Amino acid sequence: MSAVVATRLLAVARIYRPLNLLAIGGASLVGARLGHAAWVDAGLLIPVLVGAYGYARNDAVDLDADRWNRPARPVPSGALSARSARRLAIAPLAVAAGILAARGPEPLPIALAVGSALLLTAYSPWLKERGPLGPLAISLLTALAVVWGALGGTEPLRALLPALVAAAAQFARECVKQVEDLPGDRAARRRTWAVRAGGASLRRAARLSILAALLLLPLPTTAGGVGALYLVLAAPLAGVPLAMSFWWLGRDSVRYGTVSATLKAALFGGLAALGIAA
């Protein structure tokens, strides 16, 4: 394999953000375990495929801002063109549509999948420049990934509280990412929430959302029915990184990339705790 082909294949893989897709797939799988649904099911890939569409499309649409904020990504680095990114966005949607068609007429899954794809389409640039609607949209999609897995199970309501915890943590992370991207978004003349309200306002919003996640974190132990093992695992795996992020955001000097990575670790930790306890 030539170096050019290898570089292009690596760029194709990177545009789909494999680590993020792993988190989405994990959320869907955890939802299935919580809801006592079938967890060996191609339908659990739907949130992953819709997420892959969103990441590839986002890279194509956000090219101007990413030249400042994320110059190493495949499109701004020149490894892929914006047109190629748009084509790569369509491929996972086509696979998702094929899986849904093979499952037969199921109105709720179809509605959720189509709604999620439309929400991702609206996210950038429109919702991303409509104040808190941008972070709220991604938080909703995070919650839906957990709920999706529980659909068709005998106890789908068990997924609701964990979905709320994940949504609160994700909202905080989206706020932090917007503050991190503030210089590039200003240079690209984007009108994100951070550009309009200022970084201090989003730091406060992120801290409030982290506090909500910390308060919600123990609830699945009883109301979610996952038992004390969940709390024993979730406290260090999710609670500690959430608390660290809360503290860091209250300091004068903040490394937003570190906080964003720590909040992602909290999401992974929470999913791991739920998956084991469920």
Number of helices in the DSSP assignment: 13
Order of helices and strands: HHHHHHHHHHHHH
Structural class: mainly alpha
Unreliable spans: none
The CATH topology label is Farnesyl Diphosphate Synthase
What is the β-strand count? 0
Helix content: over 70%
CATH class: Mainly Alpha
Radius of gyration using CA atoms only? 19 Å
Shape: globular
Oligomer classification = single chain
Instruction: Summarize the main sheet.
Output: none
What's the end-to-end separation, in Å? 44 Å
The fraction of residues assigned to DSSP E strands is under 5%
Q: Architecture, CATH level 2? A: Orthogonal Bundle
Average pLDDT level: 92
Please provide a brief summary of the model.
The protein is mainly alpha-helical and 278 residues long. The protein contains 13 helices and no strands.
Written description of the protein model:
By secondary structure, this protein is mostly helical. The protein has one domain: Farnesyl Diphosphate Synthase, CATH 1.10.600. It is 73% helix and 0% strand. It has 13 helices and no strands. The protein has helices at residues 3-15, 18-34, 46-61, 63-69, 82-103, 107-123, 133-150, 160-180, 182-187, 193-197, 199-216, 228-249, 256-277. The longest helix has 22 residues, at 82-103. It is globular. The protein starts with a helix and ends with a helix.
